[in-house]
Amino acid sequence: MTRFALTVVRHGETRFNKEKIIQGQGIDEPLSETGFKQAAAAGMFLNNVKFTHVFSSDLMRTKQTVHGILEKSKVCKDLTVKYDSRLRERVKMRGKDFFDILCQLILQEAGQNEQFSQGAPSNCLETSLAEIFPLGKPCASESNADSGAPGLAASVLVVSHGAYMKSLFNYFLTDLKCSLPSTLNKCEFMSVSPNTGISLFIVNFENGREVKPTIQCVCMYLQDHLNGGTETR
Fold first, then answer.
1. Where are the domains of the chain?
2. Would the annotation count 67 as a binding residue?
3. What is the pLDDT of residues 204-220, one digit of tens each?
4. Helix (H) or strand (E) run with residue 159 in it
5. Catalytic residues
C-alpha cells in the first residue's frame, strides 16, 4: 500500500478576478495587492506543513502564489518548484494527465524507499498535516505500527487555477469515486475554488500502480487563513 497527500491551492486574486473577467491561459496576469496578501496568508497557514514535492502552473499568478506560500514556510522554504504547463487553465484531460504522471512519480519513489513499506510507523508528513486540517486527524491515527497502515510516502503541494481544479476534481469524483466529508455535497465539491482556497486529498494505492487509486477528500476550499474562521468544507 502506498499513500500520499495532495494539497491543491488556487492562485491569489488578480485584477481580472476582482473585476470578474475570465482570464484563461492566454492572459498572464500578475497578482493584485490583495492576491499577494492572500498568498502570504496561505503560506502562514501552511508554514509547518512538510511538503516533499511542489508543482505550479507556469503562469505568473501561480508562480507568485507558490513563492508567497513557500516564503513563509518553516520547513520547506528551499524546496524546488516544478513549473508545469499542464497545470494551466482547463483543457480536456489535462487534469487526468498530470495526476497520472504524479502518481507514477510517487509510486516509483516509494518503491525505492524502504521506510514506506507495509507496516511503517507514522511520519512527520502526516503529523504536520494533522496539526492544521481537522478532518485529517483520523487519517493520521491510522498510520501506526499497530494498524499496519503505512505512513505517507509523500506530501505534494500543487498551485493551479480555478478551472483546472474544477476539471481535476471532477475526474476525482466521477472516475475515481472520491469519498467526501459528510459536511460536503457534490454541488459544493464541483464549485469553483475561491482565490487561495486550500483543498486536501489522501490518495491511496492498495495494490500497486496497475489499479486505480482510492481518494479521500479531507477538506475543500479551506479559507481559514483569509477569514479567521474554523469552518471546513
1. 2-114+122-133+152-226
2. no
3. 998 655 678 999 999 99
4. strand 152-160
5. 11, 89
Q: What is the pTM of this model?
A: 0.87
CA torsion sign, 76 to 81 to 82 to 83? positive
Alpha carbon 170 to chain centroid distance?
15
Which residue did the predictor score with more confidence, 12 or 228? 12
For 95-114, write each residue's pLDDT tens digit. Answer: 888 999 999 999 999 887 75
Q: In terms of CATH, what superfamily is 2-114+122-133+152-226?
A: Phosphoglycerate mutase-like (3.40.50.1240)
Is position 33 annotated in a ligand binding site?
Answer: no
Are 151 and 123 contacting, i.e. CB atoms less than 8 angstroms apart? yes
DSSP string, 43-104: HHHTTT---SEEEE-SSHHHHHHHHHHHHT-SS-TTPPEEE-GGGSS--TTHHHHHHHHHHH
Does residue 221 sit in helix, strand or coil? strand
Residue 170 among known ligand-binding residues: no
In one letter, which amino acid is 90?
Answer: R
